[in-house]
Design brief:
Radius of gyration: 17 Å
Shape: globular
Number of domains: 1
Strand content: under 5%
Number of strands: 0
Helix content: over 70%
Largest sheet: none
Structural class: mainly alpha
Number of helices: 6
Length: 141
């Protein structure tokens, strides 16, 4: 399956996701890295290790910067959206789900992340051309 077989709706969806990631992740990454106290206070996060917290800020920032490349060439940079989708779904299942099952989920301090991540996951499901990704490229046979 080549690029011509991907609908214009999917192409626009991918570009939209790249734009959203470029704007939101870049800004959030910078704020988390350079203003961790303000970030923790605004999102009502519990006290945490600033080095580990900074890693998440750096990752958000990197996603944002790399997403700029995806705006120009959506399929070439599709691994950015896939990684974003995968880590957020993994976070929902492995962190939020586990905390909820154990009765330890502090919804007050995680509601913004839950809502934000849910919007991005829904957008990724809509935009990522999974059929294209799962199609066989083997033309030798």
């Amino acid at each position: 399956m080549d690029i011509e077989q991907i609908s214009s709706c999917k192409m626009k969806g991918m570009k939209f996701q790249y734009w959203m990631t470029a704007i939101v992740a870049t800004a959030l990454g910078l704020v988390v890295m350079f203003f961790p106290g303000i970030t923790s206070e605004y999102f009502m996060f519990r006290e945490q290790d600033q080095v580990v917290f900074g890693i998440s800020g750096a990752v958000y920032f990197a996603f944002g910067l790399l997403s700029i490349l995806g705006i120009r060439n959506p399929l070439k940079w599709l691994p950015i959206l896939l990684l974003q989708f995968t880590y957020k779904v993994t976070w929902f299942i492995g962190v939020i789900g586990l905390l909820a099952v154990r009765g330890e989920l502090d919804i007050r301090s995680s509601i913004w992340l839950i809502c934000g991540y849910a919007v991005f996951v829904a957008g990724d499901i809509w935009a990522i051309p999974f059929r294209h990704l799962l199609a066989s490229d083997d033309t030798s046979g």
